[in-house]
Each structure stands twice: as structure tokens, then as C-alpha cells.
Amino acid sequence: MSVDLLRFLLPLLLWPLLVHAGPRIQHWETPAGVRVYFVHNPELPLVDLQVVFDAGSARDGDHHGLASLTAALLDKGAGDWDADGIARRLENVGAELSTGASRDSAWLDLRSLTETDKLAVALETAAAILAHPRFARRDFEREKRRLLQALRQQQESPGQIAARRFYRMLYGDHPYGHPPEGEIDTVKAIERDDLAAFHERYYVARNAIVVIVGAVDRDRADRIARRLTDGLPLGEAAPAIPPVPLPEKGRTERRLFPSVQTHIYTGMPVLRRGDPDYFPLYVGNHILGGGGFTSRIVKEIREKRGLSYSAYSYFLPLKEKGPFVAALQTRNDAADAALEVLQATIRDYLDQGPTEAELKAAKKNITGGFVLRYDSNAKLADYVAMIAFYGLPLDYLDRFPEQVSRVTRQDIVAAFRRRLDPDRFQTVLVGGGAMNDGKKE
């Protein structure tokens, strides 16, 4: 489960916590148009950096897996250094670097000490990786083989098969419909020049965001952002992702797989980042299936009936409508019964909504531990990057507790009824007892 997401926030038990001051996010643009988001955190002599591009798998076109393969090759050779040379440079100054891609974005993460000489080496290396990756043919062929092997291994996992098929059922030919890592046939067709062209189009200044969190001041943060990105061509921002069409009707697909358990996914596209229904849906889902052992789905399916060890639901907001997902794993002979209970629980929740006691407990649980979610530079950088990439208000973390506290039972009922339609849910079952005749319903 990525490029999620996408996961949240701060205590709200007493009035003083309502006025808790979250991190102050400063924002500006470099002369090249790179958007910079900075939080001064002087507690440790460290700085965590993220450079985020609108260059996720939604930009793959027909080359499914291209964004992921491009990101994977960035640090395998750049400028004057091969992969070993890059690793040695970073190790010598105590820096850590990684790259990756999800459906919406691609990124480079860098953690470094703030000592001038050490940070200079780390920044020089990261800047070369961003602007001048080699995409050497030998490295490309090795990473391509590695990705293909991973994709073949996924074909042996009923859970992976179910998740991939679920997204295809939800999104069809929309850019969100294929897995970020691609499929075997599409990855086989990718050439080295495809990576170079993808990098040239999307790894550009006007498509970039820099996040800086750590023990540097505003002026030094600006110099860091420029050092990281001055080598990038100006380019253009990525175009808007097409809107997601809603399914016209529900479908259920059953796939046979020789496994001891059946994996079940059901749901529909629902939620964009920044959607006004986000808070009622988020708080409401904590009660429905996101709150662990206290959630209704777990109580009905696991505790009352013993049909599944793992059952849950969540919303995954994206640039365009991300999915509502309800899922479980169960023994093969219980698949139909477990799915029936899951569907009935969701329908009952849409009809009745939560109780006031459930809502009170959910608010307390959601807000009670968020401080720990961003108690380090790296964790905070992840949140700031999310705020920056999706254009959320800079005081988002400050306002989150209050937004949660304002959610009423009526808000939840209205939002769930407005946004979820079980008659449009797409459902997939994959497992050894998941079908008898190989036909779709």
C-alpha cells in the first residue's frame, strides 16, 4: 500500500492543546521558480531535505513503471561518480540519501550534518544526482532486471494480485489504474532513452519543490535550495492529471489462486487532497475501519465472528480522487461470509452513522498521539512535503486538532452518504477458495 499514503496529528484533550503552536513553515521561491518550504528546528545539528517532483507514475504514459525506474536509477551514477563513488562520498560525511516514486510524485531525500564542509559534499552529490544522472546502460539493465524479478515475485502473492487488480477495476485506463512499479510487459519495453526523456521533461525547476527542516537559518536554507536545484533546467510544471470518472455500477471479480487465504478489496474513488469533506471522512473512518481493534469492521468481522485476523478501511487522498479501501484476509471457506459482513457493516454505517460515544473516543484517539508523528526532522519533512506538494494551507498542522474537534456526528453521516455509494463499489477476491468456475460475476 505507496505511493500512502499515504497518516496523522496532535492532542486535543484539553483547551491548552487547542492553541498548541505547530511548526512554523516558511515559504518562498528561488529565482528559477523552485518552491521552497522551510522549518527551523535547531535541536540537533542535522538537516533533512526533500526535493519533490510532480513526476510519479501518473506521468508514465504507456510506459508503466517508467517513473519508478527513473527514480531508482538517479543515485546509481551521476556526474563524475558511479554508484560506489556516490555511496563513498555520502558515507564519508555521514549523509544518507534515497530516491523513490509513488503515483503522484517522485523524490530525493537527503539527511546531513550541518557542518559546512560535510553539508557541502552532501549537497554537491545530491545536486549532481538530480541534474546529471548517468542512466548508464549497465546500471539500467541491472535495475530493470531487478524490477522485473520483483514483479514476477508479486505474481506469487495473492495479496499483491488483489491490490493491483483492485486499482485497475477502480481506475481502468486512468493514470492511477496501473501500479507505480509497472507490469512485466510494460517494463520489458522500457529503454534507457525513455528514462533520459522522462528526466528531461519532469525533473525541472518549475516542477520541483524543496523542503528543508533542521538546524539552519533562513538565509542558509535559501542557499541550500539553490545549491540543490540551480543545475536543473527551468522547464515547465507538469500538466493537470485527468479527473477520475466514478464507476457507473458495482462489479465483483473472483480470481482463483492456490493459497490458504482469500484476499478481499472493495471500494471506489472518492477523495482529493484538500477536499472539504476530508475531516468528516477521516474521523468517520477511524470509527468504521481505521481505528484498529476499536473500529466497527474489526469488531464485526474479527471479534464477533472470528472471520478474519486483519480487516480495515481507509481513505487515500491523491491529486485526483484517491480510493476508499475496505479490505480483509480470511480463510477460503469463509470468504463469502466475511465479504457479506464487511458490506453490511459499511451499509449500516452509512445508514446509522457513529454514536456520540464512538465519536468522542475517535477524536481523543486521533489527536492524542500526533506529536510523536512529527517528533523528528525526517518525520516533519514528510508532513511539510505533503502540505507543499498538495497545496494545503501552511498552518495545516496547527489547525488539524481544531478541525478534528469540530467534526460532528451529522457531518460524518452527511459526508459518508454524499461520497460513498456501495452500489458502485468495485470488489475483488483472490484466493484458493475465491471462485469455483473461473467466471466473473
Q: What can you tell me about this protein's structure?
A:
The protein is built from 16 helices and 13 strands. With 441 residues, the chain is an alpha+beta fold. It has 2 domains: 22-229, 2-Layer Sandwich (Cytochrome Bc1 Complex, Chain A, domain 1), CATH 3.30.830.10; 251-431, Metalloenzyme, LuxS/M16 peptidase-like (Cytochrome Bc1 Complex, Chain A, domain 1), CATH 3.30.830.10. The strands form 3 sheets. Strands 1-2-8-3-7-6 form a 6-stranded mixed β-sheet, with helices on both faces. Strands 9-13-10-12-11 form a 5-stranded mixed β-sheet, sandwiched between helices. It has a two-stranded antiparallel ribbon with strand order 4-5. Helix 11 (296-303) packs antiparallel against helix 12. Residues 1-20 and 434-441 have low confidence and may be disordered.
Helix % is 40-55%
Name of the CATH superfamily of the largest domain: Metalloenzyme, LuxS/M16 peptidase-like
Give average pLDDT, whole number: 92
Largest sheet: 6 strands, mixed
CATH topology of the largest domain: Cytochrome Bc1 Complex, Chain A, domain 1
Beta-strand percentage range = 15-25%
Number of separate helices: 16
Could you spell the SSE succession in H and E letters? HEEEHEEHEEHHHHHEHEEHHEEHHHHHE
Helix and strand content put the structural class at alpha+beta
Question: Which CATH-level-2 architecture of the largest domain?
Answer: 2-Layer Sandwich
How far the N terminus sits from the C terminus, by CA atoms, comes to: 26 Å
What low-confidence regions span 5 or more consecutive residues with pLDDT below 50? 1-20, 434-441
What is the domain tally? 2
- Please state how the strands of the largest beta sheet are arranged side by side: 1-2-8-3-7-6
Shape: globular
**Number of β-strand runs:** 13
Q: Given this structure, which CATH class of the largest domain is correct?
A: Alpha Beta
- The radius of gyration computed from the alpha-carbon positions, rounded to a whole number of angstroms, is 23 Å
